[in-house]
Amino acid sequence: MSTRRYLFSKVLQALLTLLFVLAFNFFLFRAVGDPATQLLRGHSGISRQAVAQLQRELGLDLPLPQQFVHYVEETLQGHLGYSYFYNLPVSRVIAQRLWPTVLLIGLSTLASTVLGIWIGIAQGWRRGSRYDQGMLGFTLFTYSMPEFWFGLLMIMAFSVGVGPLPALFPTGGYETTGVGYTGFTHIIDVVNHMVLPFVVLTLAYLGQYSLIMRSSLLETLGEDFIITARAKGVKENRVLYGHAVPNALLPTMTVTILEFGFVLSGVITIELIFNWPGLGLLTATSVDQRDFPILQGLFLLFSASVIVANLVADLLYSYLDPRVRAG
Amino acid sequence: MRPPPTSTEAPTTAPDAHIEPKGAPLTNPRAIARARRKAALGRVWREYRRNKMGMAGLIVLAIFVFVAIFAPLLASACGLDPTCPSTGPQLQPPTPKYPFGTDDLGRSVLTLTIWGTRISMMVGLIATMITMVIGTAVGLTAGYYGAWRETVLMRFTDWFLVIPFLPLAIVLASLLGPSFYTIIFVIGITSWPSSARVIRAQVLSLKTRSYVERARALGASDWHLVTRHILPNVGPLIFANTVLIVAVAILSESTLSFLGLGDPLHTSWGTILENAFGAGAPFAGNWWWVVPPGLAIVLLVLSFTMIGYALDDILNPKLRAR
Amino acid sequence: MRNMARVAAAAAALTMVAGLTVAGSAFAQSPTGEAQKVTFIYGSPTSNSSLNPLVGYLGVDYNIWAMEYNLPIEFGTKDFSPDYAHSIVTSVETSSDNMTFTYHMRSGMKWSDGQPFTASDVVWTLNFYKERNIPNYALDLAIFKDASVVDDTTFEIHSAKPTSVYNGQSVFLYDFILPQHVWSKLDEPKKFDNVPAVGSGPFVVTEYEPGDFVRLERNPNYWGTQVGLTPHVDEVIFKTYNDENQMAAALQRGEIDFIWAMSSANILNSLKNKPNIQTRGAVQPSFEELALNTGSAFQTNPAGGFVPHGDGSHAVADPAFRRALRQAVDSQTIVDKVLLGYGEPANSPVQPSAVPAGVHWDPPPDQALNFDLNKARADLEAAGYVDTDGNGIVNDPKTGENVVLHYYTRTSDQNTTKTAPFVESWWKQIGVGVKIEAVSNAKASSINVAGNLDLYDWGWYPNPDPNYILGVFTCEQRSPKPGVYGNNDSYFCDPEYDKLYQEQLTATSTQDRIDTIQRMQQILYEQQPYIMLYYDRNLEAWRTDRFTGYIPQPSPDGDMLAFYGPFSIINIRPVTAGAGAAKSEGIPGWVWIGIVVGLVVVAAGIMLGRRRVSDEDRA
Predict the structure, then answer these.
(1) Strands C455-460, C287-292: parallel, antiparallel or unpaired by DSSP?
(2) Of B96, C106, C115, C504, which has the most beta carbons under 10 Å away?
């Protein structure tokens, strides 16, 4: 199969998946129930006429297939509806929360991937050594730890201060409220706020990557071509970095990209605990408030990013590994 | 949230054609196969015993199972009820009478943690069963039959893989109402795709083994092939995979309960942490309320993970040291 | 190769040091560089829902509007009585037929954009609210016909029937006055995001991040300076904290100045002993109740289009049964255990601080249904509920079945979860079984609307005037059929009560109105559609080293930020000069640079110094 056909088929598959997601999204949230009756109690003097009027406004009196077509049209134009709670366009609310999450996920994924791979390589190469055992224990421990629990402990230790430990870091949020720092001071301010959630996320996923890298490297080291290389007298350093790692790295990288969906999930509880104003926090509060238009928009965004990540992984894999393209 | 760890390639298990069963020679082919399997299991167990990590995991798991089963004897159920006379002063740090201190209603955190074992383990195990049943069925069918069945099923699986776990779990849980049945259901139906994938890969590699082709040439039916040849050989690795999935299921339950999607009227480790968080334990410094349930989760998950990795190390020939 | 790497590392280190010096000097300046602004920051666990007074409805929404807009007559901080000295209205005259009310306004008032603030704005706003049937204000305007302008400082309110509610003796119109020149020009007023806002209050909203914070700045044209209302703060910021641990830690670190309406009494208690922090469980109208289904399945009164629906039990539909239940609930214990003491037992949905003054009613001792399990058991028996099959649960005389009540708690409120076991235990002792289930708010609402419950645990936050909360119990407010919402979640329907409701609205003297409302509360107590649990407190905490001058409303135990009006926010001032500036947080910038440099050096050292993988390392 030529490269172009491969690319084309992969992109087509991605679009099909996206369509499935749109349909799934729509019907899932319709199954939740009539949005108009989700109006919160205590709404002073809400009349039944008002509820009926709301139902008409939301287009809920149209037949379902028509609503779905309408939904797809609107989505493709970027109109994701109106938030029940904030009475603002969903796209506006989501857009403003995008950057903090991208920043946090981006940096922590980078750190945990780099560190994880580094540790995994060292472990795989020295299998059975004290380093391997020790790191294995450490990574298994962080892997088994609920990340929100670890976050709570960090807050207790470093934000609130426990015993002699001073409260080193701000308790949460993205920046100091109300002061309006700019430029360099702003960057430092954000860094201060980001340290704890960053550390928690990095450690939470570190183990994942190092374990995979380790397995991958061990499997690669069992391959024939490694024996060949050694028989040919290639130095160990070159065997490791020139032959084993590149081959072991490939599947690791693609798996890393595929885990993006789970990193997205982890970020929800972390943003909640640290009051980090990103998409994860928005998800948690929208669930509380039963703000379905926002949940629907977030769902779409999350699924779409996973689809894109998968596509990137596929394309990357095919580019780097000619065997795949050959079918 | 993390996915169940998967090896990057499907490991293969060569059927143990070289093990000779001890004792008098058997003539019945079924008996021969059974004896072989018994011997193979014995071999695995002996190797497992030598694996320090695996043994440690097994011991810890045994302790938790003991606590779960004998919970009523270890801590009276009355202690879960805030109107019970055994409750003490609210929010007390550990004392000899209350080794893990008390929560905001005066209940002993030790009692809560002990009883929480039951629900946390049960949810994890049942959810995993659902996952494995669906995953195995899908993976087997797709891998064995191939052709259109495989395409349809794998496309379906890929679609499900794309939907991010926690948002889907949250939405489903808020749809179905807060209860542990919901959580079991949600974890079950969102975790099966990755198992299906792994199993399919396994089946694919087994399908091409010569003994399978031979058996087919001899006229073996699909059912016979699947149950007598494929399943027993896929079995060990499915088992190792299952163990790892239980670990993930327990973590998922704790996260979903923490986010308020579990049943607040019952006690699991996740709901204990949810209550602690909501009552301000981190700020008030009520560390005794936060540490024990979390540590319990870590230890239980760790034990399953260690067992799973030990099994993987043993059963996967590619990982054997040269 | 190695040497080049070393040189590169050294160069990097030098650059970092240079950068450090530069940055260090940059940090010597204050963040804003100009004269320090006085900023007051308060936090709350709930986000505001909308800045638009036509749409929002939460307490935190009202707080913002109270700073931006005026009511016709403001609630006095001492006891909610009319504060004419500080309102836009200075006096009210009532016509002899009690249907026309003439309001005199102050002159020379302006909106924040400099436009004149006159009677037309008030008239336009009230007519607009009435026309559009805006839910927040609909009950205030139920008996309102229309308003008209007499001149720039005078307007008239005309009521549909004779009444006392607009006669100015008590504040009845809890309705924010909007600038006509802004809102009348909008095509879709409900979609207006209202930021930056034009208002008549001491502050106006200039910036808004939904779910995160709201920033308000001084209104340069505030008319209040005419009457001695001069703010001492330049800027107010309302910040939402989704986690109360975070919020408390922020107060402790001085990142915010005030915490408003926390829900965790545990956190409040921990804050009590921290230096420079004061806490208070402020008295507020909010209450919590067990709402009982008084008969959605059995009632025949068709008011509001009602048809019987649902599966509530006969027992709960029997007032004698409900009275017995009331005597088996010990509110004081719940306050002590669940609220950690921050509350008091309640008997009436009309709060003690309600106005007109004296309208709150408490049962006289001979009518009180005190906590008494023995009496409860005896009353149950007298009403015909006996345990005929000996299983410990009484049987319904009508159907013979065991009485097991379907009781719902709400997952969004931990207090409901904590209350349930206590109630269950008490009721078990008098022979009433319960089946407890936790659901979300939306689910609870839809179950109630379907009539499929015996009771649930919820609460209300009444207005200072009881008209609204009393209206909840009218027949017309019941959900008429499954799927259609109604405020009257106990399905209480009493023609006598409905008659009295209309009477209080059309009473021409304030005293008559008060008497009628007292009689209504008595009916509610006798019938027990709600088992009133408690009035809960507004848990607040503030730093004493930042601002001073808080005015509680009502005096002396009420809310320190007094958000029924702007008075507290106007009065607060920095404790000392400079105390009002916002603080920077965390590790200073130059320390960070030092850390980065250190890490880079260490990493370089490891990379360069590590011995290469030798052949002896073969795995």
Answers:
(1) antiparallel
(2) C504
